[in-house]
Specification:
The chain has 16 helices and 19 strands. Helix 2 crosses helix 11. It starts with 8 loop residues before the first strand and ends in a 5-residue tail after the last helix.
Length: 416
């Protein structure tokens, strides 16, 4: 009596994933406000075909709407309260140190990519900025592929699971502040699929273009037209493809084009809260395009000053909400021990800073565009296959999260 082999199912962070026979590709288009896709629609015939054969909706990102928390959420399938990554920086009060959280040692749970690779599935991850590579590579089995566009020429089989990346793609990798860097990421993914080097593929771009140009501007449209070329190649490979984003983007300037910023640490110290420390979790090694200014901040003050600080911050024009640690942890599913005593969110057109002297704004003196708050937490969610009824209804009802991406790719596709 013959038996039918059952599909591989893995459990990761309390969620079950059924690995399909068809290769799957998850794509995070960094900073992709849905308006970008609408404005470039006539230049993106391949995306139009993807949507026509599947579905397009909107999902909610993790708050803070920054790159690292959302990419980590996508590859772990769970929010920051479980995976432990609420931003790029936090303040370790015991060590009296501001800590960069780029080391995967800060992860509190495994990634789906690691679990699948350890189960014998061919996994590959390509990120544009090298800062994400360590998170995406954490726990991967020997032979799994993980490299960045930024340092593609350094990829070696022993350390990255692949070599000769530039030869595989067929050109040199662009600089990190070149729009082509993100194009190279999607192009590299197409080459990996073409060569049959991955059954599960994750691609993550960077948001230099979105920080510089608004939806519909010629440079933005040209960029999305370039991406469309390689999205089409991935689609034609036969893979199940899901596209989402880590956050959107909004203009954050005054009428004269200068940054519309509120310096929270200066305001608190001037009000007599001398020990106030503001952490801006958007801060990373790549601040040229945002000057470390985003619409989310955490604030550390002594216990007896929390109520007074909340009152002061809440009265600032451009501040949309101030939450205590416990409130923010519950509202936004954040790890309470890695955020401040207070969490501050700015409105759509405002960014939050520390002190004027702390920031180098020479590269954003005109036309700052940034993210981090609630107004950048709506992102596209696109799949090149029809969804089953339950997932279809969730997406159209606005109940999908960007970190549901791999759940949809593995278990949300309608039966053919």
């Amino acid at each position: 009596m013959s038996t039918v082999a059952q599909p591989l199912t893995v459990e990761v962070n309390g969620r079950s994933y059924t690995v399909p026979e068809t290769p799957i590709v998850g794509i995070c288009l960094d900073g992709c406000e849905p308006d970008y896709l609408d404005a470039a629609a006539t230049l993106m015939p391949n995306l139009a075909s993807i949507v026509n054969n599947g579905i397009r909706g909107e999902a909610r990102s993790v708050v803070p709407s920054f790159t690292n928390p959302n990419n980590v959420a996508i590859v772990t399938g769970v929010p920051s309260s479980i995976n432990g990554i609420p931003g790029n920086f936090y303040y370790d009060a015991e060590a009296d140190a501001e800590v960069l959280m780029n080391d995967p040692a800060w992860l509190r749970c495994p990634t789906l990519l690691a679990t699948l690779s350890q189960a014998g599935i061919d996994v590959a991850a390509v990120t544009t900025k090298d800062k994400l590579r360590a998170f995406l590579a954490q726990g991967l089995a020997d032979g799994a592929i993980a490299f960045s566009v930024e340092k593609a020429e350094q990829a070696a089989r022993e350390t990255h699971g692949i070599e000769n990346v530039l030869e595989i793609v067929g050109r040199d990798n662009p600089g990190i502040y070149d729009p082509e860097a993100s194009v190279f990421c999607i192009e590299a993914g197409a080459r990996l699929m073409e060569a049959g080097m991955a059954k599960v593929l994750y691609l993550s771009t960077t948001d230099y273009v979105q920080h510089k140009w608004a939806p519909g501007e010629p440079e933005a449209n040209e960029f999305y037209a370039r991406l469309d070329q390689f999205l089409g190649e991935l689609d034609r490979s036969g893979a199940i493809i899901g596209i989402t984003a880590d956050h959107g983007m909004n203009v954050k300037t005054l009428a004269d084009g200068t940054p519309n910023v509120r310096y929270l640490e200066t305001i608190l110290v001037d009000a007599g809260i001398d020990e106030a420390r503001v952490i801006l979790p958007i801060t990373d090694p790549y601040v040229v395009h945002h000057g470390a200014l985003g619409s989310y901040a955490t604030v550390y003050v002594d216990g007896e000053h929390i109520a007074r600080s909340l009152e002061i911050l809440g009265a600032i024009d451009g501040v949309e909400a101030v939450h205590t640690r416990d409130e923010a942890a519950k509202l936004f599913e954040l790890p309470a021990d890695r955020i401040g005593d207070l969490v501050v969110l700015a409105d759509r057109s405002t960014v939050l800073g520390r002190t004027p002297d702390w920031h180098d704004l020479s590269n954003v003196s005109e036309g700052l565009r940034s993210h981090g708050g609630l107004h950048e937490a709506t992102v596209p969610f696109i799949v090149n296959r029809p969804l089953n009824e339950a997932c279809h209804d969730r997406l159209l009802a606005g109940q999908m999260r960007n970190y549901d991406l791999f759940h949809i790719l593995c278990d949300g596709i309608a039966d053919a």
